[in-house]
């Protein structure tokens, strides 16, 4: 059995954060573990409360996992504050996982800040250099680079700048632009454009969390980085196509669409 760890926030609504990550790991046949950084009171419509876990407790969860269940890959999502970021960086340095995927979560789809404004610098300095790949969406890529991003060429320029912060690869996600959903992959040598048709659905809660944890699951399974990103893009496209119309806002994507279909269940 391969093992994957998510270091992220809890979403009580079950569509994003830790809950989306664990479902994604399970859908890939990978055993999932979690380090909770923050608890959000959240549903498909809004985030109505956020309470951070203490930095010491974040570090202890990392230690507990690594000392007994060393993960084959790690995904990092919501990290909330500079002090939590420092605890995560300390854990990464101490236990040295090779395959770390960073989704630099800043704002929820419903518009709530999930990273304190003064923590953006800490994220850049402390976490990016410790990661194999970072997966910003357009607003996050803008915040990380200070660049304006209006199309795929701008995404490529932003990817180059983000690489200069010390990670080994970048995927700038195009979900927030119009037209086809094009993601830009850059590993310092080559650019690849990963394209899918835009799916017109309001039920896209958790797309970024699901995409980054699918990359981590595929890395845990031993796939090379570009293959892991391509497979994650296929998986998120299917999960959005089969997303669920539940709740009064942006419903969740369907993490188990493939298993349900194979089992003859309704998706
Ligand atoms: N409407 C859509 N149709 C097809 N693919 C989409 C759509 N929206 C997002 N995607 C894809 O989903 C993945 C996640 O991209 P997105 O830009 O939504 O991330 P995100 O904003 O970080 O997600 P989140 O809102 O969960 O934080 C990317 O591969 C993107 O291309
Ligand atoms: C705990 C947590 N982590 C990440 C997201 C981002 O997901 P989305 O942008 O789909 O709201 C979220 N809403 N909550």
What features would you highlight for this structure?
alpha/beta, 267 residues, 9 helices, globular, six-stranded mixed beta sheet, binds adenosine-5'-triphosphate, single chain, three-stranded antiparallel beta sheet, binds (4-amino-2-methylpyrimidin-5-yl)methyl dihydrogen phosphate, UDP-N-acetylmuramoyl-L-alanine:D-glutamate ligase
Question: How would you describe what is shown here?
Answer:
The relative contact order is 0.16. The strands form 2 sheets. A 6-stranded mixed β-sheet has the order 3-2-1-4-5-6. Helix 4 (120-127) links the parallel strand 5 (100-102) and strand 6 (133-134). It is α/β, with parallel strands linked by helices. 39% of the residues lie in helices and 19% in strands. The protein has a single domain (3-262), classed as 3-Layer(aba) Sandwich (UDP-N-acetylmuramoyl-L-alanine:D-glutamate ligase). Residues 8-9, 11, 16-17, 40, 42, 77-78, 105, 108-109, 114, 205-209 line the site of (4-amino-2-methylpyrimidin-5-yl)methyl dihydrogen phosphate. Residues 16, 109, 137, 173-176, 181, 183, 196, 198-199, 204, 206-209, 211, 233, 236-237, 240 line the site of adenosine-5'-triphosphate (ATP).
How do you describe this structure in short?
The chain has about 270 residues and is α/β, with parallel strands linked by helices.
Instruction: Give the rounded overall mean pLDDT.
Output: 97
Ligands: adenosine-5'-triphosphate, (4-amino-2-methylpyrimidin-5-yl)methyl dihydrogen phosphate
Strand content: 15-25%
Count of DSSP strands: 9
At the fold tier of CATH, the topology name is UDP-N-acetylmuramoyl-L-alanine:D-glutamate ligase
Low-confidence regions: none
| CATH architecture name | 3-Layer(aba) Sandwich
Overall morphology? globular
Count of spatially separate domains: 1
Structural class: alpha/beta
Radius of gyration: 17 Å
CATH class identity:
Alpha Beta
Order of helical and strand elements: EHEEHEHEHEHHEEEHHH
Main pleated-sheet profile: 6 strands, mixed
CATH superfamily: Ribokinase
């Amino acid at each position: 059995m391969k093992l994957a760890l998510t270091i992220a926030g809890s979403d009580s609504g079950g569509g994003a954060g830790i809950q989306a990550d664990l479902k994604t790991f399970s859908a890939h046949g990978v055993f999932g573990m979690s380090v909770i950084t923050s608890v959000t009171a959240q549903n498909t419509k809004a985030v109505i409360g956020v309470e951070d876990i203490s930095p010491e407790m974040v570090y202890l969860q990392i230690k507990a996992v690594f000392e007994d269940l060393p993960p084959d890959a790690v995904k990092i999502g919501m990290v909330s504050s500079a002090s939590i970021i420092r605890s995560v960086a300390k854990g990464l340095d101490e236990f040295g996982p090779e395959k770390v995927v960073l989704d630099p979560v800043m704002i929820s789809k419903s518009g709530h800040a999930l990273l304190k404004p003064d923590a953006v610098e800490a994220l850049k300095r402390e976490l990016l250099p410790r990661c194999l790949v970072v997966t910003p969406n357009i607003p996050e890529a803008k915040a990380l680079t200070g660049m304006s991003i209006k199309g795929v060429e701008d995404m490529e320029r932003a990817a180059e700048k983000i690489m200069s912060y010390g990670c080994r690869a970048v995927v700038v996600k195009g979900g927030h632009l119009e037209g086809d959903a094009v993601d830009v992959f850059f590993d310092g040598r080559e650019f690849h454009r990963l394209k899918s048709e835009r799916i017109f659905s309001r039920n896209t809660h958790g797309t970024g969390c699901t995409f980054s944890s699918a990359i981590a699951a595929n890395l845990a399974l031993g796939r090379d980085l570009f293959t892991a990103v391509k497979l994650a893009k296929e998986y998120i496209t299917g999960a959005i196509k089969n997303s669920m119309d539940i709740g009064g806002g942006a419903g969740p994507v369907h993490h188990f669409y493939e298993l349900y279909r194979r089992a003859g269940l309704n998706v």
